[in-house]
Amino acid sequence: MSNLTANLTALQLHVAFWDLNNDAIITPYEIYTGFRALGFSILFSLGGLLIPVFFSYPTTLGHSWLPDPLFRIYTNHIHKAKHGSDTGIYDSDGHLRLPLFDEMFDKMDSTSRSGVKDQEPSLGVGDLFRLHAKTRVAADPAGWSFAAMEWWTTWLLLQREGRVWKEDLREMYDGTLFWKLRDRRSERDYSRQGYGWKDWANTIWYNGTWKSWEVDHNVYQGADRQPGVSALSLVAQGERVLSQ
């Protein structure tokens, strides 16, 4: 894999996980299969097929004015699919701008502004909303929508304790994280990262909150729990509880 990716940009590496046969072309089937490999549901993975609908043609422009009838994405020209109202972390050629990435956390991480020290930089749900609002540009509803969908997917995939952590997000930008998540799916502790409908349903039913990271991971799944009894009272002195 290292030989195949040696000369790729960060944006090409970001999408390389979905190029199952390494032919620099991503088909709708590969998009669906890639999302399933990361643990997304069938319904969400089917929703991922909107990606080639919107991004196939821009990448086709690298070699043709005619759209691809099979909605394939050509990764050699993936930089042409960059949209407005994004963070600017990728430049126009698809390279990663690490200074801008660091600056994003310096400005948007609410825990650092609240005086929390000795903690890895991270972004909570509120931080991501503020970041999305900050990067919106005028008259760009398509860009607003794409950015919102991308951050929503990012949070669902990466959140731990309700936050997206800096190192996880950096590895997502350069694509290395997707391979790690796929390999870790079989590990027992995999469910502690990400957020799915079971997290939402269990915590709503047992604790009246969708914030699963504010309740002990093992408590709300226990057979002796009763609906409506808050698990927060059973978490020792706020362990694993983060204020938003």
Q: Helix content range of the residues, please? A: 40-55%
**Secondary-structure element string:** HHEHHHEHHEHHEHHH
> How large is the radius of gyration?
19 Å
- In DSSP terms, counting alpha (H) and pi (I) runs of 4 or more, how many helices? 12
Task: Based on Cα principal axes, name the global outline.
Answer: globular
Note the beta-strand portion: under 5%
Poorly predicted sequence stretches spanning 5 or more consecutive residues: 217-244
Strand neighbour order, sheet with most strands: 1-2
The total of beta strands comes to 4
Largest sheet: 2 strands, antiparallel
- Mean pLDDT value: 84
Structural class: mainly alpha
The rounded distance between the terminal residues' Cα atoms is: 39 Å
